[in-house]
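Can you give me the bound-state structure? Components:
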Amino acid sequence: MQKLLKKRSKKVGQPPGTLIHIGEETAKDASISVIAYRDEQFLEKEAASVEECLTFKNSESVSWINVEGINRPDILEKLGQCFGIHPLALEDIMATDQRPKIDDFGDYLFIVLKMIRYNGNNGGLDMEQVSLVLGRNFVISFQEGREGDVFDPVRERLRTAKGRIRKMGADYLVYALMDSIVDNYFTVLEKLGEAIESIEEKLVIDPTPDTLHLMHELKRDMIFLRKSVWPLREVISSLERGESPLIDKSTAIYMRDIYDHTIQVIDTVETFRDMLAGMLDIYLSSVSNRLNSVMKVLTVIATIFMPLSFFVGLYGMNFKYMPELEWHWGYPTVLVVMAVIAGWMLVLFKRKRWL
Amino acid sequence: MQKLLKKRSKKVGQPPGTLIHIGEETAKDASISVIAYRDEQFLEKEAASVEECLTFKNSESVSWINVEGINRPDILEKLGQCFGIHPLALEDIMATDQRPKIDDFGDYLFIVLKMIRYNGNNGGLDMEQVSLVLGRNFVISFQEGREGDVFDPVRERLRTAKGRIRKMGADYLVYALMDSIVDNYFTVLEKLGEAIESIEEKLVIDPTPDTLHLMHELKRDMIFLRKSVWPLREVISSLERGESPLIDKSTAIYMRDIYDHTIQVIDTVETFRDMLAGMLDIYLSSVSNRLNSVMKVLTVIATIFMPLSFFVGLYGMNFKYMPELEWHWGYPTVLVVMAVIAGWMLVLFKRKRWL
Amino acid sequence: MQKLLKKRSKKVGQPPGTLIHIGEETAKDASISVIAYRDEQFLEKEAASVEECLTFKNSESVSWINVEGINRPDILEKLGQCFGIHPLALEDIMATDQRPKIDDFGDYLFIVLKMIRYNGNNGGLDMEQVSLVLGRNFVISFQEGREGDVFDPVRERLRTAKGRIRKMGADYLVYALMDSIVDNYFTVLEKLGEAIESIEEKLVIDPTPDTLHLMHELKRDMIFLRKSVWPLREVISSLERGESPLIDKSTAIYMRDIYDHTIQVIDTVETFRDMLAGMLDIYLSSVSNRLNSVMKVLTVIATIFMPLSFFVGLYGMNFKYMPELEWHWGYPTVLVVMAVIAGWMLVLFKRKRWL
Amino acid sequence: MQKLLKKRSKKVGQPPGTLIHIGEETAKDASISVIAYRDEQFLEKEAASVEECLTFKNSESVSWINVEGINRPDILEKLGQCFGIHPLALEDIMATDQRPKIDDFGDYLFIVLKMIRYNGNNGGLDMEQVSLVLGRNFVISFQEGREGDVFDPVRERLRTAKGRIRKMGADYLVYALMDSIVDNYFTVLEKLGEAIESIEEKLVIDPTPDTLHLMHELKRDMIFLRKSVWPLREVISSLERGESPLIDKSTAIYMRDIYDHTIQVIDTVETFRDMLAGMLDIYLSSVSNRLNSVMKVLTVIATIFMPLSFFVGLYGMNFKYMPELEWHWGYPTVLVVMAVIAGWMLVLFKRKRWL
Amino acid sequence: MQKLLKKRSKKVGQPPGTLIHIGEETAKDASISVIAYRDEQFLEKEAASVEECLTFKNSESVSWINVEGINRPDILEKLGQCFGIHPLALEDIMATDQRPKIDDFGDYLFIVLKMIRYNGNNGGLDMEQVSLVLGRNFVISFQEGREGDVFDPVRERLRTAKGRIRKMGADYLVYALMDSIVDNYFTVLEKLGEAIESIEEKLVIDPTPDTLHLMHELKRDMIFLRKSVWPLREVISSLERGESPLIDKSTAIYMRDIYDHTIQVIDTVETFRDMLAGMLDIYLSSVSNRLNSVMKVLTVIATIFMPLSFFVGLYGMNFKYMPELEWHWGYPTVLVVMAVIAGWMLVLFKRKRWL
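Here's the bound-state model for the whole set.
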């Protein structure tokens, strides 16, 4: 299950800009890959050291430097010095409990996003922080270093020159990366939507306390999803308004497209929350209804057998002078009277719809 | 029942502007119909191919090109090229999970709306996405291709030149189409209102778990309706403010009229939501009340017969020396005592209003 | 009871400006009355036909034309042509499901309001739509045509020249009419407040399911009242800001007064909603409390008599060798033992405060 | 208890500016006291008639005219004429159901506030409307005329020239009066806070339906308090911004201080509301918990004694051939068996933690 | 436990600027420590008297005067006179019930913050008000005087000249102090997060009324935390916008960093509130579920043994003519019949899943 909070306390008391990793430790060591392109040119390689990347800073082509794993302060520091990234931004890259945000540092934009995966096994969401630095002709992306990412289609498009991506600048690349991330939210939402619909069906047929716990976990997921998506709205809206000269007019129209998608994601999250709230009401009232029906069974049984037991007890008394006991038809009469009483009560309950 | 979410995942990883159909498949093949008019002139025909439509682009008359069925990327691409529609707009036309929106592309406005029908059979709402492209002298409308639409009265008015529609431009046609869609919301709301009122009556007479499920489904409908109508407010408000030169001043006053209607629809949806929330409270407390009355019956029965059973048990004991058993009036005395006890308890319960 | 929604569906498909009556049919035929005044001059008469009114259009005096009954499209059309009222405004006058609004048509202001009456008999609110057209020197008011209105004090003031009304222009007359309507809301609120307070008392003494239904109906009333009053705020605020040249500076100060009253009405409606929500909580927990006390009675009875019944059953067994049965003091001993058990339990329950 | 609504209906139909008293009648007749001061000068007296006050209008000193009791239209009218107060303001002074507000009439500011006292006896809040008229060199305050007010410390400071009050103008006097009123809210909040904390303790120890009613009354108080304090925020904010030339720059800094206090009061009211909502949840679940424990007692008793009663009933049957009855150890055996059953059940319940 | 409200009532009636201590009394006497630095220079000492501090006012170096304990009006007054602090600010320093705020007095900024510590022992939060006065080259901080503070890391950095702190001005020092306080909130949130997660686990395994009270206390903590953090947002936002010349551009970027942290804290508090609300629902429904299962046990027992008891009672009747009693196989037959009935019922309950 997603932890409520990441351990930020180890940072307490450090001067600002101190690079301390906050987040899960990953086994993988940090690795750096570079893609550089311009129209027909295309270069892709794994960088053995940080220094290799630096040559791309002033090249003509657009470079995408992807850093997998952020637990190595030395790598970040070198990159930071070379590309002129502010220590506070570097600090935020390493602290994976950031909320999505955009900071305009003039020469470059610093963007923080959340990449979300649905983890089928333990039913929770898996979040990975992605930080993007957009300069004039380069994009540096930092990932937490967990297995896999959602950028493969972008890489594929760059390799095959599919679409317009090779003809556009670094801002379009940032758009493409952000679009991959937001598109992936829909995959997650589909999974959650299926989970909600399957619970909804269970609710009608046979609600159990387990159903309740599933709902609670989905609600929890929704809270986390919401926390990641709401601030995204402002981030992309600020990109769309084209406030930074780093974002070209022609790219802004694509940003509007992601903006629409983000609104759609937010809308869906809110719809899911509404659905879950409604389902909780259904659950609670079905529990009450079941209590009602249990009590009705008890009441029917008690109401029928208590008078009868009284009757048979009555004629079990040992008084010397009880004339009925001597009657020849006493026993059958009592039996008939009791049958009538029981029958009458059954009819009564039928009418009250308790049976 | 309305699906919570349409399958958007197949789009993941595609470059922007890739035309992929998202939504239910319809059996019908895409068809195109054209209406062109100007004052006294009127022309209506089915277009066999896309190319036929293209002649209308630069004509003097106002043309309305209605495309039924959006699962054919080739048709959309041709239309897009001819009328200069941006690939992102074409993509949105094919993705039927859009929320209502308006995008101003300078030369043309791109509007997305939801056409809603009340489906009496399975109690749900039936949504169809309608995309409108408004150019200087043409309107292109795209429908998902399901049987029927709400535009017949507009067609009729165009044919018979009823009202001012033949004298006005393409902006007025867009107004007329949007007005048809919003007017239709009232029909849906009336149906839902009737459903709510019939449930409200049931709640008073005899609330069952079924009532609860009906309420849950109505609530669900309301969530979807709300999702479709709220964004419409902004869309029409932006048209009314006359920010685009494509909307004439004289048409803006009509847009204000639809704006008022949209607010009325939103108001009514919110009222219905409030009503449903209140009805859920009534339901829950009537379930509790019923539990109360069941328990009262049980308690009354138990309280009357438990002491009586004790009494008859008492005189069923086999002690050798129980003087009462020998008394001649023992039995009648016990009977009277028990009758007094039972009667006294009945009076007590009457006073407590449990009977 | 107030209908949730008026039948708007018959308008679907009609061109804008089509005059169709939406609302309850009233038996009364439409009637027109005219009051014209200027300082010392005063004229009041019933107009036999629409044409009679037209003479007042360009007179020096201020004219108030009051139309009772809006189900006659011909009358509205004639009036509309004469005073230059836009067809969309005429359409809104006839459709009585409008929300309060103000439209500035340049030459005249078009205002829609709701006149509310408390209907003691069936406990609901009775709403009537009032549309006002304010021109330079005339006011036309349209009412739905139900018996009576709240304008009598205004008429009286006009007749007797009480206050400053005869010295002021048409804008002040509109103010006076709106003030009458808003003042009347206080009367309605007082009635509702009394209803709430009487329910509150019942809640403390003896809450029944009926109390719940009364609360539900009040909540419903509140929803409708709120719907009528909230938009009024904007309407009057726009009049107060004096955006239209038709509203004089000296009248704007009076508009601020109605504005304050409207805020007071809204405040009170919200307070009532809060009160009702709190009362529902009280109701629900008093139902739970009563269940608790019912169950306590049952438990006390069962806990006392079940062991006793076991005891008497024990000595009702027919074993041959049961020494106690032979004892001379067996019976009294058992009686004493049982009395002790019962007494001890009563003490226990007393301590637990169940009795 | 605070009435939900004051009788405003008697005003319906009156022309604006009609002076009608709305509010509780007080036995005391209206009285007027005047304080005039300037540096070293200080004058304090009871005014026998309104005319006496008029001399202070154009004096050099700052005058504070305090009117106790607002049920005398003649007094208000005279004051109004002399100091040029608008009839609508006079009307608002007499209508004690105003919400706090500020109206800028150019020459003077008209401020309405609520003075609140905690009434220990019947547990409710006692509200008194205070209207202030701030002119260039005078302040007129109107109170409803109930015993006592919160202005005594201000009077004392004026008499003893403590602080800077005698050196400052009329605006500072208004500040001092408003500060007294807002400061007094803290006293009320402290009392309510104590009430909430004492209820919170009761909730833990022994929640009864009375606790619930106390909570309901506190909630009610909170609703009224909130209604009086929220609008105050805007009032003081408008004074602080120094929009009126009647408020000096040096006084504005003091207004900011009251503004902070008002925000603190609002914050506390909201905190109390949150606390009360949380306490209601605690109450409801403790009621449910208690029901649970009652039911457990019942179930334990029934589960133990029902099988035992069956057993003893079994051997109370009168069949001729029941071998067990003849056994010598029959009776003790049955006793042992029953003890074992009962013991085993007790162990079971212990394990389920029902005992 | 945190008191709901501090005793402000003793201030009622005092002129503004009266220095009265509001808050808990601390045993410690007020003490003053001074740190002065500039690049390589560094001085740290305890000030024996207020006068000692005054020399730092016009020095070249940056001075940080830390006052521990605010219950000595004389010290504050002297400091106030020397550094020109407004009496209203001094008053706010001594009143520890302030909400976080910033006041711009031109020459200096006055900032109020809350330092929060998690008090493990009694489970509550411990709040201490910190007031900061930022002048051109000095910072004065006032603490309530409780043991310890969160500024030690800042002192350490000043002493060791770690980071850039010794090279920057007084504004950076204020930033560092505020950063320490906000960083500490994360420590508190981590503790609360752990508490929430441990309760969440308990909820699944074995919810008791104690769990509910823990939740209630956490909710209470959350209310107080929220009250301290929300206003902080505005405070820091105002610092970040660089409205005051006392905040340098280069420091503003650091303020943006704290701003992000504050938003993160607010986000987390809201998430925790959502979690707690969800957990309350789980708790309530698990209580209902348990009631259900208790009732099922009772019903099963009653349903099985009531008919059996009736049967044995039947053959305990003393009628003279009861043929079954004479049968040789009567007793075994009855036993078999009863076993069949009981078995059949058990099967029935199994099927209904009550067992």
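A couple of observations. Chain E touches chain D through 62 residues (CB under 8 Å). The domain at 20-285 of chain E is CATH 3.30.460.20 (Beta Polymerase; domain 2).
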